[in-house]
TrEMBL record:
SUPFAM superfamilies: alpha/beta-Hydrolases. PANTHER family: FUNGAL LIPASE-LIKE DOMAIN-CONTAINING PROTEIN-RELATED (PTHR46640:SF1), TRIACYLGLYCEROL LIPASE, PUTATIVE (AFU_ORTHOLOGUE AFUA_6G06510)-RELATED (PTHR46640). It comes from Xylaria bambusicola. GO terms for biological process: lipid catabolic process. Keywords: Hydrolase, Signal. InterPro entries: AB_hydrolase_fold, AB_hydrolase_lip/est, Fungal_lipase-type, Mono/diacylglycerol_lipase_N. This is Alpha/beta-hydrolase. It holds the Pfam family Lipase_3.
Length: 288
C-alpha cells in the first residue's frame, strides 16, 4: 500500500526539520483505527496530492487523473477522471478538481493547498459570520473567503455530476489551505442536504466554538494530523482569538518506520472540541 507519509502532502510533515517532539503524551487515547480506514486515508491523501499537479486543475472533462511525479498511483488505479476543475480563482488563488472515481462509485472534490497569495489566508484571522453553514457560526475571514471565491462554481459542478452519477457518494479532501476550503465545502453542502465525507490533512483551525461544534455534529469528518506539524496551530494566536478545532482528530503520533509507512498502531483518535492532545499536545518541544 502506498504510504501516507511518502506522498507530497504528508511528506511536507517530515520536512519541518526544526520541529521535534519529546514524550508525546497519548495516555487516555487508546482507540486505534482499522486497516481499511488507513487505506482510505492513503487514497484521499493522494487525491489531495494530485491537485498540486496543475494538469488535474486545468485539463478538460474526461481526462484521467494523473501525477507525473508518481505521487498519486492509487488515485490513478481507480481510473478516476476529471469532471470539472477551477484554477487560481480569486485573490487566494483557490484551485481544485472534481473527479469521478468509477472503481469506488465516488465523486471526489479535492482542493489544493496554499500557493502564491493563498499563504496570506491564515493571517487574515478576523471572525466573520458564516451563516450559510449555521446561524451562530463564525469563520476566519481569509480561509472562508478563499472558499466563497469558488463556492458557486463548486456547487454547480457537484450538482451536474450528481445528475450524471446519481448513485455515487461524495468525498471532499484537501491539504493545508485546501483543507480549510474542504471543511467549509462539506459543511455548507451538508447544511443544504448533500451528504459528504470529509478527509483533511494538516487542517488549520477555521472558526469559533459554534462552528466546531456544528461541524462535529454533522459527522463523517476525518481530520488527519501528523506529530508536531505546525499547520493545525494556525492561524497565529488562533487559540487566543477564539479559534477552535472540530472533533475528532486522527493523529499520526509516530513516524519511526524507515520507509515512512504509517500503520494503524501509529494513529490515535483524539476526541473533544479543541483538544490539547494530538497535534496540539501541550508538552511538544521545539528545537533548532
Amino acid at each position: 500500500m502506498q504510504s501516507l507519509a511518502s506522498i507530497p502532502i504528508l511528506t511536507l510533515f517530515f520536512l519541518f526539520g526544526t520541529l521535534r517532539s519529546e514524550q508525546l503524551n497519548v495516555a487516555g487515547h487508546t482507540e486505534t483505527v482499522s486497516t481499511a480506514l488507513v487505506a482510505e486515508f492513503d487514497l484521499f491523501s493522494q487525491y489531495a496530492s494530485a491537485i498540486y499537479c496543475d494538469n488535474n486543475a486545468q485539463s478538460p472533462k474526461g481526462t484521467p487523473i494523473s501525477c507525473s511525479k508518481g505521487t498519486c498511483p492509487q488515485a490513478e488505479d481507480t481510473n478516476a477522471t476529471v469532471f470539472g476543475n477551477f484554477f487560481n480563482i480569486g485573490y487566494f488563488e483557490s484551485t481544485g478538481v472534481l473527479a469521478i472515481d468509477p472503481l469506488n462509485h465516488r465523486l471526489v472534490l479535492a482542493f489544493r493547498g496554499a500557493e502564491g497569495n493563498g499563504a496570506e489566508a491564515a493571517s487574515l484571522n478576523k471572525f466573520i459570520s458564516c451563516a450559510a453553514i449555521c446561524s451562530e457560526c463564525h469563520c476566519g475571514s481569509g480561509f472562508y473567503d478563499s472558499w466563497t471565491d469558488v463556492r458557486d462554481q463548486v456547487v454547480a459542478l457537484i450538482a451536474a455530476a450528481q445528475q450524471e452519477y446519481p448513485d455515487y457518494s461524495l468525498a471532499i479532501t484537501g491539504h493545508s489551505l485546501g483543507a480549510t476550503q474542504a471543511i467549509f465545502a462539506a459543511a455548507e453542502l451538508r447544511t443544504n442536504g448533500t451528504a459528504a465525507t470529509l478527509f483533511t490533512y494538516g487542517q488549520p483551525r477555521v472558526g469559533d466554538t459554534a462552528l466546531a461544534e456544528y461541524i462535529t455534529s454533522q459527522g463523517e469528518n476525518y481530520r488527519i494530523t501528523h506529530t508536531v506539524d505546525p499547520a493545525p496551530r494556525l492561524p497565529p494566536n488562533g487559540s487566543i482569538l477564539g479559534y477552535v478545532h472540530n472533533s475528532p482528530e486522527y493523529w499520526i503520533f509516530e513516524d519511526t518506520n524507515t520507509n515512512h509507512t504509517v500503520n494503524p498502531g501509529q494513529i490515535k483518535v483524539i476526541y473533544g472540541i479543541n483538544s490539547t492532545a494530538g497535534s496540539s499536545v501541550s508538552n511538544t518541544i521545539f528545537r533548532s
